[in-house]
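Continuing the series of single-chain predictions for the mutant panel. This is the parent chain; the variants come on the following pages.
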Amino acid sequence: MADLFNTLFSSSQYIPHGHCYLWQTPLVWLHIISDFLIAIAYFSIPMMLIYFVLKRSDVPFSKVFALFGAFIILCGVGHLLEIWTLWHPTYWLSGIEKALTALVSCYTALLMVELLPRFLALRTPEQLETLNQELERLLVEQKATTTQQLIQSEKMSSLGQMVAGVAHEINNPVNFIYGNLSHAQDYLDDVLKLVETYELAVPQPPIAVQRKAMEIDFPFLKEDLPKLLQSMQIGAERVRQIVLSLRNFSRLDESDVHPVEIHDCLDSTLLILNNRIKQGITVTRDYGKLPAIEGFSGPLYQVFMNLLSNAIDALNETDQGHKEITITTERLNTNYVSIRLADNGSGIAVEHQAQLFEPFFTTKPIGMGTGLGLSISHQIVCEKHGGQLTCCSAVGEGTEFSIILPIKQQSLVTAPLAMAVA
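Parent structure:
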């Protein structure tokens, strides 16, 4: 160790570098000042690089910055040794320092070759400006989309509150009528039995009674009045079902999951749409055996309403004689159920299918749709319920929307959706 130290710092074997300059004072001072100023500059540059890297830890290629710093520091030390060797010929120490500088510089050069493609891939200022403008445009569009969705959501919430209020107001008198119809039927039966008893007891009633019976057509009245009450009871029951469907449909702001009967949701939605369906459209229900699922009934009503309304619109645009909507439900496995709604309408063009679930996209004429129905339905099924909503359509053959929903929300963790689809 001592021999190495003596070798590095020994100056007895060599002459000082100043002899090469013949110890000319102006020439010596020129080299001293030049090397000193260069060393100061070399030492200040790494300090600024270190400060920059510490302040901007997000900047990539920090290893390159460190190697550049080490290379520049070694270069500065080399210039200080140039001053030292003017009087102290420790050339071994100077040579080793140059060797270290060479190693660091060569390693830096190799690293630069490796990183050169990444450097070239960096965005130019013009490209960054273009990306910023595109980002600003997307943010504006996203803001507009979010605003329209909030407006639509607020409209649906207000509509739900209004429908719930109307349904509640209708429900009370309808229940009053429906509840009293059974008593009216019993009273009518008693009256008719009394009349029959009177006819048996008095085979020849007074002339005035006979004339009144002929005037009101009593035999027809006796036969038709029970039918009239029965039809009133059927109508009142139908009104009750419609009111119940409206109340269920208005439950759009549910916050907690609860058991949902899919078939009840579908039947209630079809009941609300009955006035449009009965205009030449056949609905085929191919229901499988489904358990109650954990979900939000109000939003699911909205999904079925959107999909069925679109199917009815598609069928109304065609001129074919037989118009049909087929609803198929089945249990896929222990964790998922499937609902498929198909129509035999004109179908959807291939170039439009990729945009179906985008906000504001619609193929309907201006004023006939907002373009949010399928987007909101996709959000309800996929994000709110963790399910899947897909579309399969062929021009001239019809369209089928497929919904896959988890039976229990924890199924999302225990059984991936891809397994259910497979």
